[in-house]
Design goal:
98 residues, 23% helix, mainly alpha
Length: 98
């Protein structure tokens, strides 16, 4: 048995995925636009209605929810508060903390 396996490139065809085990569930692991760009939706009290086209990432969700709730964001949070999605009363809560 060889000590090291040879490196073999694997080139996937568009819209084809490789799964380990059974292909159950979904993934956002492909490099295609339809898979790397997903919507972030906030709904409910404290949310300003509207559509915002600012670029954001999933890491922006926790700081934004923390701001809406008036609590400190998680200590390991790397995202930004999406202030445009916060209703006026939510912004007032944020301003009172600083």
């Amino acid at each position: 048995m060889p000590r090291h396996a040879a490196h073999s490139p694997l080139i996937a065809r568009p819209f084809h995925f490789f799964f380990e085990g059974s292909p159950v569930g979904t993934t956002h692991g492909s490099p295609y636009h339809y898979d790397t760009h997903v919507p972030v939706i906030f709904y409910g009290a404290g949310v300003r209605p509207g559509r915002y086209n600012r670029e954001c990432t999933p890491s922006d969700i926790a700081p934004t929810l923390a701001a809406m709730l008036g609590v400190e964001p998680p200590s390991n949070s790397v995202g930004h508060v999406l202030v445009e999605a916060i209703a006026e009363d939510g912004r007032n809560q944020m301003a009172g903390q600083h």
